[in-house]
Every structure is written in C-alpha cells, then in structure tokens.
Amino acid sequence: MINSKLPSVWYGGDYNPDQWPEEIWPQDMRLFRKAGINIVTLPVFSWAKLQPSEDVYTFEWLDRILNLAAENGIYACLATSTAAQPAWMSRKYPDVLPVDVDGRKRTHGSRVNFCPNSPTYRLYSVRLAAKLAERYKDHPALLIWHIGNEYGPHCYCSNCAAQFRVWLRAKYGTVEELNRRWNMSFWGHTAYDWDDIVPPSNLSGDNRCFQSMMLDYKRFMSDSILACYQGEYDAVKRITPDVPVTTNIWGLFNGLDLKKWADRMDVVSWDSYPQMNEPMSNVAMRHDYMRGLKDGKPFMLMEQTPSQQNWQPYNSLKRPGVMRLWSYQAVARGADTVMFFQLRRSFGACEKYHGAMIEHVGHENTRVFRECAELGRELKALGDTLLDSRLDHQAAMLFDIDTWNAVEITSGPSVDLDYLKQAQKYYKAFYDQNIGMDVISPLSDLSSYKLIVAPVLYMLKPGVAERIKEFVRQGGVFVTTFFSGIVNENDLVTLGGYPGELRDLLGIWVEEIDSLPPEMKNRIVMQVEGRFGRVQDEYECGLLCDLLHLEGAKALAVYGDDFYAGMPVLTENGFGQGLAYYVAADAEQRFIADLCATLCERAGLRAPLDADPGIELTRRYKDDRRYTFVLNHNRGKAAVRLDGPYTDLLTGLVHEAVLELDAYGVAILEG
Ligand code: GLA
Ligand code: ZN
Description:
By secondary structure, this protein is an alpha/beta fold. The chain has 17 helices and 28 strands.
C-alpha cells in the first residue's frame, strides 16, 4: 500500500485554501465530507505565503488548515510548495531566473520558472522542504510528500553551461573522448578545452545541429532538475523516513528521463488530461506507461479535472458519467488513487475556467458535485479490495524517452516521423482487441513476456539488442519497424548496414530508406495464406519505406509500387526458438491491426472476455482473486459476454452469460 494509514482508494485532490478567506474553510470541509474526500493536496503554490521574506517563515495558516483537515478525517498529500519561488527571491537573487532556448533571461512570473542549477533555488527549496518536514513530521494528516509540481522546463544560463561541463567531464573524462563520442570533427566543431562546450541553444544557430550534444544536454537537464527533486526528497526522508514521497509527472513527455525519475520516487504519480476527442487507446497507453515506470507497482492518479480544463483549445465538459468512467479507467490500469485538480475553482487568474468539484456557485447542488459525491460513495464502499492488486500482461511495448528525443531532433529523413504516434498506432492494435500490453523501457526484464513490440527502435543503447535476442532465442515473438537499430546512445550510426545490431535477429539488410511526402503512398502486397489475409491482399503504406534484402528472413509481403516494387516490406525470421518480424514501412492502421492480431494468436494471447467494440477490459489480480474491469466508452449500450458467474463489486449483482452496460457504464467483476 502507498501508505497503510489510509487503506482505501485515495480520493481528493489539489486544494488551494490560501486563495480563499478562512471563513470558507469549514464550508469546504463540509462539502469534502459529503463527497467522500479523504485526501487533499496542499500547499502546492504557496511558497510566497510560507516564506514572505528571506528570514521569515509563516506556517500558522498551514497549521490551521491541516488541523481542520485532520479533525474532519481528511489526510494531506503535503506539497513542498517549491514550484513557484517568491518574488523577493527572483528580485534579490537573479540566478534563480532561467534563460530560455532563445537565450532570453526570463523575468519573474508564472511557475516552474527557475534555473535548476541555481544555488539559491537549491538552497531555499531544500530548506523549505526540511522546515515543513520538521514542523509536520508528527501531524496526523501527513500521508505522503508531494515535491515541487510538474517539473520540466530546461534552462540555458551560464550556470547551467558550467554545470554541463562538469557533467560531461564526469561522463567522458577527456575532451578527446567527448570529440569522439559526439563526432565533433563534423563541421569542424572540435573542442580543444571543456570551455569550448556551450549549451545547444538557438544563439548558436539551429540548436538541433549537434544531435549528440543536444541529446546529452537533455539528459543533463533531466539530471539537473532531478537533483532539485532529490535535494528535497532527501530533506524530507531524513526527518520522515516512513512517509512516501512522489512528484507529479505531467504526462507522457520527453523533457525528462521519466524512468530515471521514477527510480527516485516511492510511488509514481501523474496528471491525466485527455482531450475530449482523443482516442481512448492513447489515454490507456499513458496509464500503462506510468505503471511500467515502476515495474507494475500501483501508481497515483494525482490530477484529472472533474469537468473541464482551461488550457485546451476547446475545453469541453466531461459528459455525465465520463469523469467516473475515466477514473475507473485509471484504476483498471493500476492506479490506487483518484484525485482531481481541483477541489474548489479559483476565481481569478488563468485557472478560473478550469473545472473543480466545487464550482463558482459555491454549493453542492451541481451536476459535477453530485457525480463526484457518487463516485466518492462507490470508492468508499470498495474499501481496500483493489489496493495493491497487479495487472499481468504477456505483451509489452518497448518505449524509450532517449529514443524519442533522438528521433525528434534528428535532421531527416522525414519531418512527419513522430515516435509517439508510431507507438500509439501499435498500442491501439492491442487495445482494440483488449489484449493487455505493458509499456516498458528497453532495459526492463523481458523474460515474463511472450510478445514484444518495439516500433521505431531507432536507438539501441548498450545491452538492448542482446536482451531482445535472448528473449527471441527463448521462444518470444518480436516485432520492430523501419528506422530501428540505426544509432547508438550518442546518435552515431552503427556502420555496416541497417538495422545494425538487429541485423542477424531480423535476417535482413536495409540498403536505402525512402521518405514519401504525405500525398505519396506505396502498397503492401501480402504473399502468404492464413489469418493474416490472403495472397495479394493489399494495404497502404508510406512515410518511410525501407529498401531491404533478405539475409535468412522470409518475405511475407512485398511493395506494390515504384522502382522497389517486389522488394520485401514485411519479413519473418526464425531465431532460436522464437520469431522476429520487421515492418519496413509506415503501414495503415488496418495492417497493423491484422498483423498484431495474427501475432497474438501465434503467441497464444487472448482478450479476457469477448466484448462489443468500444468496451475496454483489463484485469487486476490480488492473492487468489481476480477483478475484471469492464468500461463502456460508447455513447450507447454495449455488452460483454461472460464465461461464468461474476459478481459486480459496484452493484453486488451476480451476472452470467451476458452483461449489458449503459453508455459510459462501468463494472468491476470478481470471479
Ligand atoms: C497541471 C498542474 C495543476 C493545474 C492543472 C490544470 O496539471 O499541476 O497545478 O494547473 O495542470 O489542468
Ligand atoms: Zn540555468
């Protein structure tokens, strides 16, 4: 359990009492109790109020609100409040203010607007965290620490430049080695001295010219920001060793090495803000990614909106039932908390149009409040039943932030190549069939899987190719695509033919890579019989098309057009006990769906139950119990066919044969 002091699904979210007169607080408490809220996250952005000047700290107001929460049976996800430094600090110590990628020194304002290598920021943020821990170490409300908030932005100031050189020295030892690892003889960039190395900002032209340097700068920034988090982590852990610590990740993004970050968290937490019209498979993939960061341990849904956002282009309301459905989707995929941003809607500044449990009207007679209270009642009734249960997937996708960054900053072969989109296409093929797939780092343990998909595995870090080969040797099924195995961790091409270290595994050699503009397409023409279509079945492909030769693999499909018509576009290679597939072009979704369905069948992977389209199924296991989540994302009724009697934990009803769910309906079936 994240913290056994509260052995039920944690339900609550961000609360900003310091934006309100204290008279309102008891009213908030009444409404929180009514909604079944058991946790509030605070004070996320209150550094200015907690430390109004350099030597003055004011905790009394925080004492009062924490005491009030405790009296009302509500716990605190206690934030260290260091995401937005006070104005006096920016004024007195300009090293706190960051420099952006265009070389502009930022002025005070907004949030997460600090230089991660600022000695001032490091000193005062850690000091505040320690003071909070000292003061509240024995407070009955303290449940978990929430360090900072949504870390992310990078800095290019002279302090960061100096620290970058220190970081590089530790990594490469000598300037000669650095020149070699970054291939600095290109365009005569040879460095003679560490001081020749400057951060890759737009001041030196296009900051993407030197991709090896750029990649390392991103890694260095992630490490620098992580050091800010780590400083606070260590400070609170020293004083409260038994209280778990986290920071909220702002989604699946490539600004930080999230895997490395997760290793420093006691529990992963993240903020989920899907767009109204986004495919549900993308949302599910993000949950799966967060779960994968800590090898399947339950994670926290730290934020979601009860109704709408303010920062999307179109901030649609969540339709009746959707907030509940998406909350259970998080739980279905491994969350042990359901938390909101935010509990009371602010009345000024940029989030006044962001949804909240308590709307501007101030009372509980609203649709949103009623839906929140209803969900609170249900979660309370579930007690600790689901906590710590695990998913058990036999398929996995390899997904890597470094690879994503490398693909993004590379010059050529296509501006339209989007690593995340490619991953989402393959994920969707599994999601649509309700075949669970973990999303994991290429350096994870692969031995428990039967099928592994690695779209655009462009970068192969040391050891990755060998792990994949071992997986296939042992009988695994592996699929990868065009633009894989091309570079090493420094973005230098592996010479001797693509896909480099994967060549023997795949039994192919790629000679050239064609890049097609959006209006140009090629055809995939099947050459085999079986479930995967008939001979001559056709699909569309484009974007990147590899021109490849077989070196032991078998062509399952060939290109239909252009000067490379007849060349293989889908190959299969036996390797050890297993099979390795290569998809040489960006294929239409129908092809990926058919391919993945065939491979799942081959690997013996099946959906838990048979369901209508638009129904999402997952299973969580605990001890000898099994919970099947049935989520109806359709705007109308839909059904799932059962293979025996199941009890719905939400209604207590026993179902057999067929269960029909209303629009946006949810069932959690035990059996
Ligand atoms: C982020 C932040 C919150 C809030 C929400 C609004 O997730 O962490 O403070 O600004 O966005 O959607
Ligand atoms: Zn800086």
